[in-house]
Each structure stands twice: as structure tokens, then as C-alpha cells.
Amino acid sequence: MTIDAILFDLDGTLADTATDLGTVLNRLRHEAGLASLPPESIRPHVSKGVRGLLGIGFSITPDHDRYAELHQRFLTHYSDSLCVATHLFDGIAELLGRLEAEGIKWGIVTNKPSRYTLPLTEALDLARRAACIVSGDSSPRPKPAPDPLWLASTLAGATPERCLYVGDDLRDMQAAHAAGMGAVAAAWGYLGDDQPLEEWGADAIIQAPADLETLLR
């Protein structure tokens, strides 16, 4: 199969954002008189976004009376510390460089709002190189709907059937299948704690970024 473009999730696939997001969550907990949560208990929930983090940090859901207030405070704090400890996962920089050398386009599809996606990808030196960047508010429906992946393939000038989508969450695999793309699970990511990786229905599971090159051969 010929692949013209590879699309990646951002948090937990390209970039390790867990430390910065965990710091924000613990800051909110401190403001509420609560102790810090250890990083290892926060990490699996990062791919679920603010909803998942507030869930683990305060045991609340969006229908809770305090959810809107905590959600806004989380975003305010995160805006101030967007890329303090965040970095690319080991092997990602090399992988992207080799894809570019081989003429394979790559892009980013994330549920993260654009007001955070764009400055973060600029800080990580991804924005100027990506064939497309699609955020959670770039299309009518975010993942697991296929809309953002379809938009990304259009922006990258590739057809869905000649794209792969690489992500670290079940909804990434669901979105890829719904869009008609190959679904690749990134085992180095956050993965969550709801369902085993092997049950996601991925077309392939890769343990490290370099494994994607093997998959393309």
C-alpha cells in the first residue's frame, strides 16, 4: 500500500505533555487544599483532556456544579505554562526528519483547542513543517468522529485511503477507521486505563516511533 501522508495525534503521540498538564492539575488541587497527585496516577488520563484530568483530580464530571469554574481555571493556568516541560517523545524528531527526507507528508490531528495547539506546535518546531494542523475546534465534530481526519487529508493533499493515523487512545483508532484510514496505535503514549491496547482494533501497534518506518517498508 502506498502512503502519501501520516497524521499524528499530538498529546501522548508526538509530544509528552503530561508533566505540564499534571502541574496545572496539582496547582488546582493545592488551591482547593488538596495534596498533589503523583505523576504516574495522572499520566493515563492525559489523553482524555481537561475532562479526564478534572475527573481524576476532583472526581467530577461536566454536569457537576463546579465543573465549569474548574475547567476555566485549568485552561487559564495551562495558558501560562503551555510548554515548560513538554517535549517530543524520544525518536519523534528523527522519525519526522526521515519522513520529510523520503517525501512523505505528515500532519497533526488533535482534539486540543487551536489556541493551545498552535503555540505549542510552534514552540516544539512542528508548526512550520507540518503539512496540516487540525485542532479540536477546526471541524464540526472532534475525534472519534472522522471529520478532523478528513479535513487533515484534504489539507495535506492526500486521499484518506492513502493516509495513516497514529494515536495513543481508543478514539484515535475509531476516528481512523471511520475516516477510512489505517489505524496505528502508539504504545509509548498515555493509553488510558479503560480498555487494553490490544482490544482497540488497531491495524498495527508500534512500540517506538522507529517502528513506523518498518511498517512502511
Describe the structure.
The chain is built from 9 helices and 8 strands. It has about 220 residues and is an alpha/beta fold. The chain folds into 2 domains: about 5-15 and about 85-215, Rossmann fold (3-Layer(aba) Sandwich); about 20-80. The strands form 2 sheets. A 6-stranded parallel sheet has the order 5-4-1-6-7-8, with helices on both faces. It has a two-stranded antiparallel ribbon with strand order 2-3. Helix 1 (about 20-30) crosses helix 3 and helix 1 crosses helix 4. The radius of gyration is 17 Å and the shape is globular. The chain starts with a strand and ends with a helix. About 40% of the residues are buried. The model has no long low-confidence stretch (mean pLDDT about 95).
